[in-house]
Amino acid sequence: MKSKLEQYVENIVRHTESSKKEKEDLYEELLSHLQSSRDFLMEEEGLTPDNAEEKAMQLFGQEGEIGSQIQQALFPYRKELMLTLAISSIIFTISTYVLSLFVGGDAYIGWLCISMSLSSMLLFLPLNQHFHINRKLWINGLLIVHTLVQLYGWLIVSQLDHSTIVGLTILVWLNIALTIGLIYWITIYDYGTNEKHMKLLHGLNIASGIVIIGISLVLIVGGFIMIGKFHFMMAVFASPVAVWAVLYVVQLKLAKRNMNIAFLVGIIPVLACILIFIWIYGPAIYFN
Predict the structure, then answer these.
(1) Are residues 84 and 175 in contact, defined by beta-carbon separation less than 8 angstroms?
(2) Where are the alpha helices (DSSP H) in the chain?
(3) DSSP secondary-structure letter at 101?
(4) pLDDT in tens, 14-47
(5) pTM of the predicted model, to two decimals?
(6) I want to staple 119 with a disulfide (CB 3.0 to 4.6 A). Which of 58, 89, 138, 178 is the partner?
(7) Ramachandran bin of 77, using left for φ above 0, alpha for ψ from -120 to 50, beta for the remaining angles
(8) Alpha-carbon distance 207 to 187, whole Å?
(9) Per-residue confidence at 286, pLDDT binned at 50, 70, 90?
(10) Terminal CA-CA length for the chain
């Protein structure tokens, strides 16, 4: 059974977003430091082992605060960027909804609720020191959905006729650019022994994923606008996103065994993006 000191150190490390090896090193370093502090208190103040552990932990600080400080030191400016994104997204959401309601006469209540919920979650994560945010998958998933919701907001803005459209368009694309930057930052951090290769693999997949998801979203929204209700073809338009996600997971599994094969699989979504580009812009380039 683990001691209170070991559980205390585990709680601190759990608040950090690092690789498995980095967490192990941090755990050993913190545990060694606290054990030395405990031994010192036992020798100098004559405390029992349990009382010395309690005082050593009390002097060191609260787990969430210490973990958040270490997290901030490991990933400087990430907290500030996420807070900036959250506040900027809230401003864009409220402005777009009010403008759409009073200028266009349309109340996008569903989009408003979803966008405000996502922006609030982005605001909540950096501020809540007791919430463990070391799971990159959940954070990146939130950021990806946030990007899609912001793109839908841009489609709403583009249909309006008002002098503030230019400002809102600039704001939403700054939000999207910041979101994509955070996705790259969180994903392509040092994880594993094949650092450069993994960064390149993640980079290829994120870049191709943005293109595939963006085009699928445009086709789905276009289908809703033209048909006015759900149609089977909309599911077909969304299928490339599912294929991309499956291939991404497969590549990460293969990378642990054979990086070359992982890269071969990674070329598939990249080729798909090239074919999409040729399909969309090829005829215009040819006839011009």
Answers:
(1) no
(2) 4-14, 20-45, 49-60, 63-74, 78-99, 109-127, 136-158, 165-187, 195-227, 232-255, 259-287
(3) I
(4) 777 666 677 778 888 888 888 888 888 888 888 8
(5) 0.65
(6) 89
(7) left
(8) 12
(9) low
(10) 74
